[in-house]
Amino acid sequence: MFEASIRTLAGEFRGARCLRDVAQYWQFRCTVPGPALGAASDFVRQRHQENGVEARVIPYPADDRTEWLGRSRLPLAWFPRSARLSAVGPDGDAERICDYADEPLCLASNSTGTPIGGVTAPLVVVPGADREEGYAGLNVEGRIILVDRPAMNVDALARQRGVVGVISDCVAPAWLAQYPPVRVAADAPDLTMWSILSGRRAAAGLWGFNLTPRQGAYLRRLLAANGGDLRVHAVVDARLAEGTAEVVEAVLPGTDRADEEIWVLAHSSEPGARDNASGCCVGIELARVLAHLTATGRLAPLRRTVRLLNGVEVDGFLPYLHQRQADLGRVVAGLCLDGLGMDSALAGGSLLAFRAPETDASFVDGLVRHLCATVAAMPAEVFGGDPYELFAWDTAPYWGNDAFLARGFFDVPTPQLSCWPDRYYHSAQDTTAQMSVGALTRAATIAGVYLHVLATAGPTEAGEIARLAAYDWKHRIIDALTQPETRRSAGAVVPLARHLGYQATDAIAQVRRLAPEDPGLRERTTQLAADLRGFAQREGEAAAGWWSASGDPAVPPALDPVSADAWPVTAVACPGDAPVDGRVFRRRVWHRPDEAGLSPAGRDRLAALRAESGKVDRAWHWLNGRRTVVEVWERLQAGGTVSAAVLQAYLEALEAEGLVGQGPR
Question: For domain 3-74+244-456, which architecture applies?
């Protein structure tokens, strides 16, 4: 399926030209709102217009004052000009350690300036500078600290203690521990990691330098050679001020369903060739390819409008979303492009298709999985690369990033394509040198066919996509039920299977947005969802029974099997504690406010409900304006049950606080 479209699109995609765009975009080294981001945005707009694609740049205030979607603010814009760090010897001579002119990423983004002529201060090593105990017994006020943590993780504590500057020779962000392998100095001794400081107006001034492991080791040797008494001199010409953060919008108009849209998000704010010059530049070339192929009749015309957006990662898109909140119901799907075209032999990793979050299962995941598998099975020559080049790919759980649109508040199913892991992630060594035309073209082809399929789909195509979603969910159910941790909790197998069945139901039902007026599609997807629930139930019972009968004392007995016919799938078929409640609640705000944002009565009421059922807050993420109270209750029964009475009271308490409202999206 889709092989003809894959060949057509891959044949038109110009991978070498796209890679040249990536190389040019990389030169902007844009990291945060400021002049570099503005230049990169103008470049993207210009390239779209050169290709005959309608595009514009929309500026939004980067002022740490204007609020979007309730309480989100863009930081101040950053205006860096120059920076240099030197070690000062006993004789007063200064030896250069790093210079912004040589490598812009050596200066932490959002660094503020030093006094004219710079600042010279003692260097103090602070191990574990991201923790209070790291400063025990150390006087760091008015000093420059050398740390082995990312500057961004040291930021707040350093400001509180009057540190004037931070020097870091760390090569891995702290959160990378959750997604191994964790990069170490030996992996890339000349790697300068990108880091970022606070861009908020209330923060005290602070600057930071990022050193390579080699530079950091040299500075530490100098410190040791001087008996732990070494001064460093820093000159930084940079400032934070009110400015703008741009969103680039390019549009491929649809035809008979032009008011429905498919969105492509690629953030323009990170400094690497893959992350994320590749995402922005693949969007440029895909827009040209789709416009050309549909205009010449080689691909069917786009029925839905395709809108390509570039902005600062996550936060930069919020002003645009704020202004278009009323239109989100017409955005049937999205796609996030973030870090593509990796030559796996040089940088490691593979292309990953990140799925929808658990609370917002999506029909598009099955389509992406099928396209990846189809492209991987085709000869490399189709994609213009090395005929011996391997194409590694896989699916992965929800990541976040610009795919946050997949969350229920926005309700735009948005898978993400990214290469991961990447040896040179978030560093000055993320360049086109570790990219390949073949890998870039394969990823772009998957993205392009995905967009074309969704932009042209009618009831028949929607039915095929639903079948792909069902196939995907059968794989997921089997995978989940055969994991070792599942075997160790045989008593939870049936509830887990039932929970997966509910997610599969959500994914299948969501495909109806491609043809909401078609009764045949509704009937077919209803039956398909029921079949999937039955499949999940049967597989769960079989797994639990098998493991319980295995004689393994480590395996607890299974729960009594529950017939699929007894599942509470409608308000009139709810056994026991299930609420007979068909109301639909939707969130009015993106994030659930903290306690300070509630009325005293609301705080007391919610505290009492949490005391009765501590897991009731899980309901918040299941509110997408489409599920009834019954359906929310069903999905809360795995991972700790929540009573019907508590759930209903919780939703009513949120409604009283103005956080949720009744009625479908």
Answer: 3-Layer(aba) Sandwich (3.40)
